[in-house]
Amino acid sequence: MPERESMPYDVVIVGAGPAGLSAAIRLKQLATDAGAELSVCVLEKGSEVGAHILSGAVIDPTGMDELFPDWRDTDCPLAVTPVTENYHWVLTKKRKFNLPHLWTPPFLHNKGTYTVSLASLCRWLAGRAEELGVEIFPGFAAAEVLFDDQGRVKGVATGDMGVARDGTHKHDYQPGLELHAKYVFLAEGARGHLTKEIIRTFDLARDAQPQVYGIGIKELWDLAPEKHVPGRVVHTQGWPLTETDGSNGGGWIYHQANGQVSIGFVTWLSYTNPYLSPFHEMQRWKTHPAVRDLLEGGKRVSYGARVINDGGLQSIPKLTFPGGALIGCSAGFLNVPRIKGTHGAQLSAMMAAKAAFDAIQAGREHDELHAYPEAFEGSALKKELSIVRNVVPTVKKWGDSLGSALSGVMMWTEHFGLKTPFTMKHHPDHDTLWRKDLVKPIDYPKPDGVLTFDRLSSVFLSNTNHEEDQPVHLTLRDPAVPIEYDLPMFDEPAQRYCPAGVYEVVGEETGDPKFVINAQNCVHCKTCDIKDPLQNINWVVPEGGGGPNYPNM
């Protein structure tokens, strides 16, 4: 077997999202200012930068202001569409009520924010990073963490290429590449594969609440020109999830550049009814008269899905480990009530970059970057997350209407400096499902192919592709569990929580049920890795370059 080659760097970053790219840029900026040499590499599992990036997105520019103070005077795509109107709709099945701004704290009003394709912004950041000398390797999936003989992280290895489904080597087999570094930053986004391993290995979550998640399902539409209002932003809560006990979430409508609107729906993965399908809830949401009216005469052009961190401040794990750090959504800096995570990803990345640069300049390596969590403790980012830390658990505990009212009161009091004397806890999403005999099945309407769609035609629009003859990257710790436990208890919920139709149970009608995994459909959302009741499904990286190829999400 050929040996793996290795390449040395000062810092290796896993993930070319806003956190990974901002860290790389700041490292090179600091090196330039100091007249120092610093080698930085970014690995990206997508076929190109932006291929796996999915977000709404309405972006707070504070991260960009710190990274590139003059970004508004450049060709940065973020500058194209400032937010001009902001609405919050409370939906019933047929009606909508616009929540007055006076009822909500100022930080929820989206003043000074911008709406953009996050993938486009990441491609722009990648260009700036490469101009500074950062090496970016798209199509290379970091598959393994490397440790030295003292148990410290010394780098990562990319996955082998050319491995057949049965584990044999094909004619084009190439072993993975080892990238050694003084420090490794994990910027994989929510529920990263290597991040999970690192959190478990170093017990980083021992003093944190469990991370909880929502699944965001997004569509991009070309609107009828007379309906497009650049910069208009709408968030919704209430229907359709109010029809299913134990579920929460909401929708978004962002009027972006080029006559397009980004729409989407987030279902919190704490839902209790195993018959709930986040994909079909999103399709049902589009049938609301206010949403339907907007989309009529338009055309859907893209589709995708990705989980988001909902845990907030109390779910952020220890940020450092010997030889590296967690940055961005790998740690969980999303502000859920604001629905903003990009600025937190960028700000955390720059804090980590400064700590790593100073350590390397001092001749250190493979130790803990204590200056990074110390910087976070004194930051405006931590204060922002602290103000809203009880919102998600309050809504989960008291329901959409009462929970929203109570959390609104708490946000106002925190905004005025009256700190709530407690921090509420979370419960893991995989523990929340009720048995199927305790709930009602949900009858979702059939798609019409114009406003609402099925999963397979949706996956087609995500441009998802995997090499078919490779090991299945959706692994089962116990292959018997789906049929022997999940099916009788929950009617195998993977059939419904996956937004890409990856999981099926076939043969039930003949009394010989089998669990089928259509791994080639996977859009890398990570829902299965989170919601599976016994944590039996383990998502690992496929060959680099596989997965969705989002053009502008």
Provide a quick synopsis of the model:
The protein has 553 residues and is of the alpha+beta class.
The biggest sheet, with number of strands, parallel, antiparallel or mixed sense and barrel status, is:
8 strands, mixed
Tell me roughly what share of residues is in helical segments.
25-40%
Q: What is the mean pLDDT?
A: 96
CATH architecture of the domain at 6-67 and 120-210 and 313-387: 3-Layer(bba) Sandwich
The CATH class of the domain at 6-67 and 120-210 and 313-387 is identified as Alpha Beta
Backbone structural class: alpha+beta
Rg from alpha-carbon coordinates: 23 Å
Work out the number of β strands: 23
Give the key terms.
553 residues, alpha+beta, FAD/NAD(P)-binding domain, eight-stranded mixed sheet, seven-stranded mixed sheet, 15 helices
What does this structure look like?
The protein is of the alpha+beta class. Among the domains are: 6-67 and 120-210 and 313-387, FAD/NAD(P)-binding domain (3-Layer(bba) Sandwich); 391-423. It has 15 helices and 23 strands. Strand 21 (503-506) and strand 22 (514-517) form a beta hairpin. The relative contact order is 0.16.
